[in-house]
Structures are given as structure tokens and as C-alpha cells.
Write a structure and sequence with these properties.
The chain is of the alpha/beta class. Helices cover about 45% and strands about 15% of the residues. The chain binds iron/sulfur cluster.
Length: about 350
């Protein structure tokens, strides 16, 4: 273990330069071990998970991200009845969370989302983890209101938490290459801070492994850390590896290596320390065995059962179907850890 790094992380003293030096030159197994020890000290041996379902409302989208394999694939738009049926099915297997998002269109204004959210919440007692800063940005624009007003209306309609998706890499020169039509770094950060100010907790994410450098990844993580120090509104950090099937970016990037995947989880644990104590590994993106390894490199949460994840499966994630609660528990106990169901806001169940 890298003892000096372990203590610096606990004391919130890791700088971008230290982080960069670590990923470039430290013995990778010492790096993984340090992250694992930090995980043990900060959050213990429990591995948390949430029983949830992803509902992607539509695959129509006007944004055109170059890493996207999902948009305009099937050309569907779910009706309210279909969404309702989907939630009933999710609840029948114990879901406590619905992740509601999808493509972005000019028709989606604040009334569309508020009505949808209100109808769902009137009929179902379930946590609605919905939209992302990109959707909020466009919705506000479509409706001629500010993003703060949009968030307030969404919250009042019943949106419980917001996803931290659309962060991708929070470096504008990278965004220009991978998602030139999406909101910029400052806009993403501002919407997230506004959400936190309104009491809407969010996740934080990174989509790594396409064209960005380690410098970019680390800059991204420090932006998130700074926001968290100001607002304490992030529930977790979710690294998502780039999947390159059926998208433009996949033609020029092979994606991250397995070692890089593990390094991203490890360095995020070291950078965030106690500031963002929950580091998720996405089994949907990494697969089950790599998930078990990442849980030994700093991660302590496995995300959700994710009944359906069209976005990952479209990009070649062969794992985006459904993992039953029993399978999740077994995956965790098989590596000597303790499974613990949680809510979206990390209350233990
Ligand atoms: S990633 Fe999301 S915003 Fe970007 S094109 Fe795909 S559906 Fe649209």
C-alpha cells in the first residue's frame, strides 16, 4: 500500500499533480491496494445496490453525441400507459427507483415533463431518479424559462433526484470532439449546483475511455470534488467506460483497457476520499467479473439491478439486461463482502 497517499487522501490533500503522477508512475497493484484500503476505512465492507429500472422514454434525439449508439435506433416514443405498465412491472420485483430519461427533442418542454412526472408520482410510490443536466438545459430552453425555474418546477412535480449523466468529460476541448452540441462544462456544473441548492440530490458521473487524456479525467474529477465541497449534493461517483459499438467514436477509439478501468475506479477513490464516499462500479458496462475486481480497487457500490438498459446494450454492453437481487447478492458474497440494499439517497434498507 502507498501509505503516504492513503493518509493524504483521508486528509483531503490529494492534488491534481499527485493524482496524475500516481496514475502515470505508481505500481498499479499498490494503487489498487491503496484504494481498497481507503474504501475499507471510509465505508467498510458493505457493497450497496438499489433495485431499479431504467425507462428510456424515447430514442429520438437532436443532440447527436458521437459516442451514442442509442439515438434513432428503434424510433420509439413510449406512451404514458407504456411507462405506467413498465413501472408496475418494476415494482412487482421490488424496485424502489425508476431512472427516467431518454433522448432530447424540441417537443419536450417543461409541461411535458412536469405532467409525466406528476402522473407517475400520483400513481406510484417510487423514487423518481430522472433526467440529467442536458435534459434540464434543453427543457428550459424549449420553454423560455431559466434552468433554475425548470428544476424548481420539476422538483415540485415530484422529481426526487436527478441523474449526473451528460457530464461525459467536463473539459470543453474534449466535449467539442465527443459531444459538440451538448451543454458545456460550466452549464453542466451550474445546473447541478442549482439542483443541489433546491434540495435535489444528484449522482456524479464520468464517461471515460474515448479520446480524452488522464489529465482530462483528473481535471473532471477535481471539478466534481469542488462542487461537492460547496454543495454536498452528490450521492455517489459513477465511472462509466466508453463502449464503442454502433457509434462514430468507436471507429477511432478502442476504449479503455481493463487496467485503465480499474485505475479510474482506484484514483477516484483516492481523489474523493471522504468527500464523495460512494464509488460505484457499473456492472452494465464492465461485466460481472470485472465488477468484482473493481470492487477490490476502491468501489463500494454496484448500482442497480437495472431492468433494461437500452443505452448500454445499444453500445455493445452485453450485460445491460437485468441482474436479479439474488444474483447481485451472490456476486458480492462470492468476493467476501456484504450485500446491502439501499435507496437512491443511500439510506440502507
Ligand atoms: S447520448 Fe443522449 S443526448 Fe447524446 S445523442 Fe445519445 S440520447 Fe442524445
Amino acid at each position: 500500500m502507498l501509505e503516504e497517499i492513503y493518509y493524504k487522501s483521508l486528509d483531503n490533500e490529494i492534488t491534481p499533480n499527485i493524482a496524475l503522477e500516481l496514475v502515470n508512475s505508481a505500481n498499479q497493484f499498490e494503487l489498487f491496494d491503496t484504494a481498497d484500503q481507503l474504501r475499507k476505512t471510509i465505508v467498510g465492507d458493505k457493497v450497496t445496490y438499489v433495485v431499479n429500472k431504467a425507462i428510456d422514454i424515447t430514442d429520438y434525439c437532436m443532440i447527436g453525441c458521437k459516442f451514442c449508439s442509442f439515438r434513432n435506433h428503434e424510433n420509439y416514443w413510449m406512451t404514458e400507459e407504456e411507462i405506467d405498465e413498465s413501472i408496475v412491472q418494476a415494482k412487482s420485483v421490488g424496485a424502489t427507483e425508476i431512472c427516467l430519461f431518454g433522448g432530447i427533442t424540441e417537443e419536450m418542454d417543461i409541461n411535458y415533463y412536469c405532467n409525466l412526472i406528476k402522473n407517475i408520482k400520483d400513481s406510484h410510490d417510487i423514487c423518481l431518479h430522472a433526467l440529467s443536466p442536458a435534459e434540464v438545459y434543453q427543457t428550459a430552453k424549449n420553454s423560455g424559462i431559466t434552468t433554475y425555474e425548470a428544476l424548481k418546477m420539476l422538483r415540485d412535480a415530484g422529481m426526487d433526484t436527478m441523474t449526473g449523466a451528460s457530464a461525459e468529460i467536463l473539459v470543453d476541448s474534449v466535449r467539442e470532439q465527443i459531444c459538440p452540441n451538448k451543454l458545456k462544462t460550466n452549464e453542466w456544473s451550474q445546473i447541478v449546483k442549482e439542483a443541489h441548492d433546491l434540495g435535489i440530490l444528484t449522482t456524479s458521473t464520468i464517461m471515460y475511455g474515448s479520446v480524452e487524456s488522464w489529465e482530462d479525467r483528473i481535471e473532471h474529477m477535481f471539478i466534481l470534488k469542488e462542487i461537492q465541497e460547496e454543495t454536498q449534493g452528490f450521492t455517489e461517483f459513477v465511472p462509466m467506460t466508453f463502449l464503442g459499438e454502433n457509434n462514430e467514436l468507436g471507429k477511432i477509439s478502442n476504449g479503455a483497457t481493463g487496467i485503465e478501468d480499474l485505475k479510474v475506479h482506484a484514483i477516484s477513490r483516492i481523489i474523493f476520499g471522504k468527500v464523495i464516499p460512494n464509488i460505484q462500479v457499473s456492472w452494465v458496462k464492465l461485466g460481472l467479473r470485472m465488477t468484482q475486481v473493481a470492487l477490490n480497487c476502491g468501489a463500494n457500490d454496484i448500482g442497480g439491478t437495472m431492468i433494461e438498459d437500452k443505452i448500454s446494450t445499444a453500445a455493445g454492453g452485453g450485460f445491460g439486461g437485468y441482474l436479479s437481487t439474488d444474483k447481485i447478492k451472490q456476486l458480492i458474497t462470492d468476493i467476501g463482502r456484504i450485500p446491502q440494499e439501499r435507496t437512491t439517497k443511500y439510506e440502507l434498507l
